């Protein structure tokens, strides 16, 4: 099959699948489910291909299957595969705790990477950017700092106990929380508008694709 | 035995976590060990993906064998997954000629269904926003709707609206950005706290 034929075929398959998914607008139906299950199957197949082609085969070629592989290379190649296979035990309840040893590798190393990534990639840059907002327009900068702090305080549930035993939130915290709530509502509304516009753009692209296919 | 395994699991998490953390600092003497550990985790992750897909296919196979309701859909899942793997194998063996069968499947199925599903979202988002107004009117939902409309109309950049367009831009750049920063900093603080708890052995969830 030539690449051109495949491209044409892909276009028609895409047209049919798009129509099947759009049929959901008439309610949940067999056609929509067919498209979604097909998508799940193809995604699962792709996940296998990417995992094997992109990660496992290069790893095996560099360790176990390398010409004249040393003992260290063989051990290095086997260890992650054995740990990975330990994860299979998680599905067998009597040995599930042994499977946790495999999970320990993922959790321990993953946590450390996430910790460094969160602090150096999110926390510090965001705090720096919030502080730097004052360097531009002073009023806007102050609003950004106020919004950032009060949004954080909105999720603060600290209370003080009155002499009569009732737990109440101190008024400054209540006020900051209400302000934070306003900022959060504005943020969510803005993000919601962004989501509507993005999906509208994709919808327009899909409709244009359908029309182009059908009208040739 | 259970206690020993729990201690061993916690020790592994804490030990590997601390070594990795140390190795990620610039100029660390254990940087090479951390690099090897990261490579190993990627391989373990790939094996985990394979196990996950096998589990998915196993679940669908059981549904077919038992004849559960909706089993024909499971046939579609199984056939699609096997077809993708076979087509890529055929492709890599050079039996597919010049054509890129993997790319064909990606364009024909993945891209089409993903973008069609994303396109469907517009209807549900608009419907949900309309339903918000039909519920009891509170100041929060009113503010949400007003901001939503201002941002949507502002995005159109209608020249006749003049300063209104600027208001939409200001909302996105100042108060919305402030709230988003608050949320992101909150998420980062939460993730940091959770990470520290795991590395201190205070989070027992992974030992269960």
Task: Explain this structure.
The complex is a heterodimer of chains A (216) and B (208). Chain A has helices at residues 3-22, 30-62, 71-86, 96-132, 138-154, 171-215, and strands spanning 160-161, 167-168. Chain A is mainly alpha-helical. In chain A, a hairpin with a 5-residue loop joins strand 1 and strand 2 (167-168). The two termini of chain A are 22 Å apart. Chain B is mainly α and 208 residues long. Chain B has a domain at 1-99. Chain B contains seven helices and no strands. The longest helix of chain B has 36 residues, at 31-66. The two termini of chain B are 13 Å apart. The model of chain B has no long low-confidence stretch (mean pLDDT 88). The chains are: A mainly alpha (216), B mainly alpha (208). At the A-B interface, helix 1, helix 2, helix 3, helix 4 and helix 5 of A face helix 1, helix 2, helix 3, helix 4 and helix 5 of B.
Biggest sheet layout of chain A? 2 strands, antiparallel
Strand fraction of chain A equals: under 5%
Strand composition percent of chain B: under 5%
Uncertain runs of chain B with pLDDT below 50, 5 residues or more? none
Mean pLDDT of chain A: 90
Number of helices of chain B: 7
Mean pLDDT of chain B: 88
What is the chain-wise order of helices and strands of chain A? Answer: HHHHHEEH
Structural class of chain A: mainly alpha
Q: Give the % helix of chain A.
A: over 70%
Terminal CA distance of chain A reads 22 Å
Which chain pair has the greatest contact? A-B, 117 and 120 residues
Q: Which features does this protein show?
A:
heterodimer; A: 216 residues; mainly alpha; two-stranded antiparallel ribbon; 78% helix; 2% strand; B: 208 residues; 0% strand; extended
Q: What would you say about this model in short?
A:
The complex is a heterodimer of chains A (216) and B (208). Chain A is mainly alpha-helical and 216 residues long.
């Amino acid at each position: 099959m030539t690449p051109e034929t495949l491209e044409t075929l892909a276009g028609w398959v895409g047209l049919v699948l798009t129509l099947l998914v759009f049929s959901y607008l008439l309610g949940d139906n067999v056609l929509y489910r067919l498209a979604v299950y097909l998508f799940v199957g193809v995604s699962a197949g792709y996940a296998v291909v990417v995992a094997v082609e992109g990660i496992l085969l290069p790893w095996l070629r560099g360790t176990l299957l390398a010409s004249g592989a040393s003992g260290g290379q063989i051990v290095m190649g086997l260890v992650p595969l054995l740990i990975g296979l330990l994860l299979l035990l998680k599905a067998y309840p009597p040995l599930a705790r042994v499977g946790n040893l495999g999970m320990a590798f993922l959790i321990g190393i993953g946590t450390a990477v996430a910790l460094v990534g969160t602090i150096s990639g999110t926390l510090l840059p965001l705090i720096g950017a919030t502080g730097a907002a004052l360097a531009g327009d002073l009023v806007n900068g102050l609003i950004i700092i106020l919004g950032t702090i009060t949004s954080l305080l909105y999720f603060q549930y600290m209370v003080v106990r009155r002499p009569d035993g009732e737990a109440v939130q101190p008024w400054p915290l209540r006020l900051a929380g209400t302000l934070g709530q306003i900022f959060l509502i504005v943020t969510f509304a803005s993000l919601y508008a962004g989501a509507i516009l993005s999906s509208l753009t994709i919808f327009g692209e899909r409709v244009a694709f359908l029309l182009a296919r059908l009208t040739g | 035995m259970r206690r020993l395994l729990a201690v061993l699991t916690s020790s592994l998490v804490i030990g590997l976590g601390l070594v990795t953390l140390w190795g990620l600092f610039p100029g660390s003497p254990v940087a090479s060990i951390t690099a090897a550990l990261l490579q190993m985790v990627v391989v373990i992750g790939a094996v985990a993906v394979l196990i996950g897909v096998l589990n998915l296919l196993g679940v669908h196979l059981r549904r077919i064998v038992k004849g559960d309701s909706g089993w024909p859909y499971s046939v579609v899942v199984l056939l699609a997954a096997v077809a993708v793997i076979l087509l890529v194998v055929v492709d890599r063996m050079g039996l597919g000629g010049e054509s890129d069968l993997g790319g064909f499947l990606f364009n024909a199925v993945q891209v089409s269904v993903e973008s069609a599903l994303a396109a469907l979202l517009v209807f549900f988002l608009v419907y949900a926003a309309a339903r918000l107004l039909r519920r009891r009117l509170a100041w929060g939902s009113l503010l949400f709707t007003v901001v939503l409309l201002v941002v949507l109309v502002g995005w159109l950049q209608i020249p006749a609206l003049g300063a209104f367009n600027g208001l939409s831009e200001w909302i996105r750049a100042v108060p919305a950005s402030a709230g988003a920063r608050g949320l992101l900093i909150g998420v980062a603080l939460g993730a940091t706290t959770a990470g520290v708890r795991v590395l201190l052995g205070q989070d027992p969830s992974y030992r269960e």
